[in-house]
Amino acid sequence: MDAPHRIRAGLAPASPEQMIAEARKAFFVMFGLLAVVWLVQLANWADHYALSRDYAVVSGDVATLPDVLAAPLLHWSWAHIESNSGPLFVFGFLAAYRGVLRFLGLTLLIALSSGLVVWFFERDDVATVGASGLIFGYFGYVVVRGLFDRHLIDTLVGIVMGASFAYLLTVAVPGTPGVSWLGHLGGLLGGLVGAWLLRDRRARPGTAAGVTGGTAAATTDGAPRTLPGSPRSDLYQELDDLGLL
């Protein structure tokens, strides 16, 4: 595939305008998701939390398997939803701003991994609901995404988030009363796997035109930025590897 075709296929680096547009979409997607979660909570509270009882995930109960997709929208109390709302929005936005479609696939993967880990390994007398599995999944995704994508900005974001919220991992291990550590662990694993499966597979400059060791990435008109063997080609390669191109 030549360079112009690669660009049309979406393999070229995103422009700042495209990144801003995706960030705007991410904001509204997360705002909408949070609004849905709170509307569901209102209906749930008005019905004395019948929705949480009816659509919770219960280990070993085949009838609750489809509820792995509904359970993240439900909570047991106002304190429960309030504690989840802030982290859900922050980590969800950071996970979504590189692409909303990728984020939707990631969300499905995390919901499934969190719910299935609960379904297989939780005690059968525990009913599990809540968005914390999604939160842990987004957290794991944000922390490692930059490493898999070889993107400097995302790597720095991951380092900051990992250092600032490392305490979250204390409720992804056994021993924390009143929380589903299995749901947290399952969500975290789903986010890490999602970072690998949804990593950026666009071509690097050295292979943009099928030539290694010289030709840099093509511009939007299909012309190469540097000729093969140009002294600047190595610089472009390094900048692109850092995620700055």
From TrEMBL:
Lineage: superkingdom: Bacteria
Cellular localisation: Membrane
Alphabetically ordered keywords of this record: Hydrolase, Membrane, Protease, Transmembrane, Transmembrane helix
Entry GO MF terms: serine-type endopeptidase activity
Biased composition (Low complexity): 206-226
Matches recorded under InterPro entries: Peptidase_S54_rhomboid_dom, Rhomboid-like_sf
Protein name per its UniProtKB record: Rhomboid family intramembrane serine protease
Keyword Cell membrane belongs to the record: no
Gene3D superfamilies (alphabetical): Rhomboid-like (1.20.1540.10)
Residue span of region Disordered: 206-233
A GO cellular component entry from the record: membrane
Membrane topology field: Multi-pass membrane protein
Transmembrane portions of the chain: 26-46, 103-121, 127-148, 155-173, 179-198
GO biological process, alphabetically ordered: proteolysis
Domain Peptidase S54 rhomboid: 68-199
